[in-house]
Amino acid sequence: MVNLGLPNALYQALDVPVEILIEIFVLCTTDTDPLANLKLLRVSKLWREVVQSSPRVWQHLYLHDRGTIASSHAQALLWARQSYPLAFDIHLDVSQSSDLVLPLLSPLLPLLDRWRHFTMTGKRDESIDISGSLPQGLDPLVITIEDPDQLDSTDTEEGLQRLTFSGMPGWLTMNVWVSELPKASCLTPLRFTTIVMSEYPPILSQPRAILDFLAACPMLEAFFFTGWHHDECLLTPLPVVRLSRLRKLRLRNTCGTRSLLSSIDAPALVELHLGHLNVDFAFSGAAPERGGPGWEDGDSEDEANDFSRSNHSDHATGMGLRRLLMRSNPPLEVLVMDWSDMRTKDFKFVFSHLDKLESFFIEASDMSDKVIDFLRPYVSAWDQQVRVRLPRLKRLELSNCNELSGGALLNMLTDRVKVTDKWEGETLNEVIIAHCEGFTPRHAVLLRKELGKRLKSEQD
C-alpha cells in the first residue's frame, strides 16, 4: 500500500462505501498536491477502480509553470479525459512567468465548452466562471508582446483590468501578455481563426519567431500584426508557413514586411492591408547584398529611377509582395496600402498578377506617372488584343499621392473606362481622388465628363 502520509487507522476508516470514497477523493486534489489522484491510484485495487471510474474525482485540474510543458500537457489531457463528460475547473499558477499561460492552456482550449471555472494565481490573479457565459466560441486571440517589466501589471494602458478571458455572453476573447512568443513546439495546435498581435518597444520580435508561432495556427483566417519601426536582422532563409485558410492579412508599423510576406503561403488570401510601412532609413532586412544569399530576381535597382522618400522600405514591400504572389497566387480582391509604397517595377509586377483585384486604396505613395500609366489599356504583344491590368477593378482610391500629375490621372482613367465600360467584364464604379496636389479642379471637371457620379474628390 502506498503511504499517503495518513495514519494507519485512517486507512482502515476509509473502508467505506464507494459513494463516500468518491466524496473524500474529490477533496484530495489541491494546489499543494495537484497529482494526488495519481497517488490514490496506487493505494489499492479498489481505490484504483474507484478513481479511474469516477469523473468527479478529476474535476479539479491544477497546473503550474514549474515543470516541463510536456508533463503539463500530459496532465491536462489525462484530467480532461478522465473527467469526461463532466465540466471541470482549471487552477493555473504562473509564479515564474506569464509567458507560459498560452502554452499551459493550449491543450485545453478546444474543450472550452467543458470548462467550469478558471482561476489564475501568481504573476496575476484572476477568476472567472466560464460555465456562466456558456461560450460558443473563443476568438480572437489577442497577443501583446511587451517589456518583461510590464508583464506583471494588473491593468492595461486604458486602466482596465488585465483579463485572460473577456468578451460577451456566448463568446470569449483570449488575451495574453508575453515578453516573447511561445514556440510552436510548446503548443498544441491552436484553433483560433483570428489573431491580433501587437509588439511594443523595446521588444524585437524577429520574423522567424512570428512565423514559428503561426505554424501552430492551422485554422487561422485573419492575422493582424502591429509592430514598431526598427532595424531587422539580415535576410536569412526562413521556414515557409502554409496558412491554407488565411483570408485577411494586415501588417502595420514593421520593417519585417519582406521576411513575413516572403515566408507565408496563403492560397486563399482575399484582403491584404499594408499600413505605415514607409521609413526613411536603411535597414538590414530590406534587401540582401547583390549576388549574396537571399538575392532574388527583382532585387536589382529599379530601372525607372523614380523619386522616393522611402526607397529601402519600398524595396522590401515590393519584394515581399512579389514573393507572396508567386508562391501562393492568391485570389486577392482588396489591396490597401496606407503609407506603404513600392518601386515602379514592383507596381507593374503586382498589377500584372492581380487578375481578381476589385478594390485598390493607396495613400502617401511617391508613385510616378509611370505607375498610374500601367493601368491604362494596352495592346498585348502576344495576341494583339486590347487588355487592362487589374481587369476586375471596381474601386480605386488615391490619397496624398503628390508625385502624380493630374494629366496622367485624367488620361489613364478616361482611356480605361472607354474600354471597360463597353466590355463584358468589370469596370470602375467608384473613383476617389483626395489631396493629390497635381489633380486640380480643372482635371476634376474634365474627368467627371467621363465618370459622372463615379468620381469623388475634394473638388466636389
From TrEMBL:
Residues 296-305 have a biased composition (Acidic residues). Residues 15-63 form the F-box domain. Pfam families: F-box-like. Residues 288-315 are annotated as: Disordered. It comes from the Eukaryota. This is F-box domain-containing protein. It comes from Mycena albidolilacea. The lineage of its organism: Eukaryota, Fungi, Dikarya, Basidiomycota, Agaricomycotina.
